[in-house]
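Duplicate of earlier report; aldehyde dehydrogenase (NAD(+)) input re-posted below.
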Amino acid sequence: MASFETRLFINNEFVDAKSGEYLTVYNPVDDSLVSDKISSAGEADVDAAVAAAKAAFKGDWGKTDPTVRAKKMRQFADMIREKAEEIAGLDTKTMGSAIGTQAMGYGVCADLFDYYAGLADKIHGETSYPTSAGKYKITQREPIGVCSGIGAWNVSAVLFGWKAAPALAAGNTFLYKPSEKAPLGTLALGALIKEVFPPGVINIVNGGGKTGQLMAAHMEIRQIAFTGSTATGRKIQEHAAKSNLKRVSLELGGKSPSVIFEDANLNLAVEKSMEGILANTGQICAMASRVFVQESISDKFIEGLADGFKKVSSGDAIGDPTLKTTHIGPIADKKQYERVMELIEVGKAEGKLVTGGVRRGKDGLYVEPTIFKQTPNTSRIVQEEVFGPVVTVHTFKTEEEAIEMANDTVFGLSACVYTESISRALRVTRQIEAGTIAVNDWYFPGPDTPFGGIKQSGYGREGGLEGLIEYLQTKTIQININTTT
Ligand code: NAD
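Output:
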């Protein structure tokens, strides 16, 4: 008997998929089967979930006072916090990320529900002063209806919270599809949802790309928020355009630069770069995977970073992801592992390996933290997202050169700048093409500020007030006050 839920969560019930199709997931620690009976939603299942969400929107939830919505959201947040570790264990089991990282993800998810609960009763409109013609205008922000989300596998709970929390705060109902690589944790939230929200308010369906496509092309879904690769993002946009022109927001890939100037605190730059490269085994969209160091300090920086990586490779920080002492687990699955190793081979052929570049141990899909230097900017390992613990380090002479190299990418998700000069920090952050930039730090998103990319890293924002506005539509009402004739 499986000790976790594998069915779909529709209308506050766990139900078998009508499709009769299932997903299979393996544990990347030892390749053991986790389950081959995870229900995968087909057309009739997606239709049922949308119908439940639509009925809830037209029914109780759509009429619920914002303060009541907020109260329920806070209650849900508390319940998530209480179960964070237990539920996180399900994601660790399927995609190998360290339990501490995944549990923190559920904590962030709870924080997102608290944050957006606080905004639920602060959705105000505007009035404009009547013109001499007697036109009085009111602008109000309204919910959209049935909203939806599709997520990647790296931090499932955060990706769910970023979408579901603002959607509910705005008064919408919601359908979510987690990644087929991490289908169990988010699904387990169904048991908590059932205790707090009316039926149909949040529905969760599992499935692969086919299920995602059904959602993106659905005529009754009014909005879709997507987190995943740029390639899939293009398809989502296409399905939306070909169906009902639903609203789309895209949180896509990144190849984020970290620019380190010679006046920076070198120890801090090394320490924060390690975090930015190795967090969640390098499987983070905002990871600082291209480091640009000013020539005069480059040898010292590379030496410091390589020492840090070697310590990680030889110590307890890498290993069994179910242990709290572990920070780096295996790569999520075989396909992802093979892609990481393929790009490592490209790095070896076109650049100079400093450290790592090999599988760690015989069992499990572990990759040693890896540094390359002297890789040309045109190399695939510099231009493509690796999504593993791999970094390329480059050197520069001038500020202008650093900015040019940092921007030489199709992505624009995040960036880091290390310098003690406030004017340089402001100058450089202004010129780097990215949606989020950290100074003397690695960028870590919080609930209260917008996160998202520019260029081919997507559009739309999650988090902060902007994240709420994505789930509201504006209506302008014009009233003629000159009704006496
Ligand atoms: P992916 O694009 O392969 O899959 C993402 C989701 O899309 C999955 O749920 C998948 O089932 C679904 N999907 C696949 N084909 C589809 C289709 N044709 N129509 C609709 N849905 C479809 O990405 P992944 O490998 O799961 O995740 C890694 C990527 O996610 C990386 O590029 C990473 O940078 C990105 N990511 C971005 C952010 C961000 O906030 N910008 C956060 C985390 C991950």
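The mean pLDDT is 97.

Merging into the original ticket.
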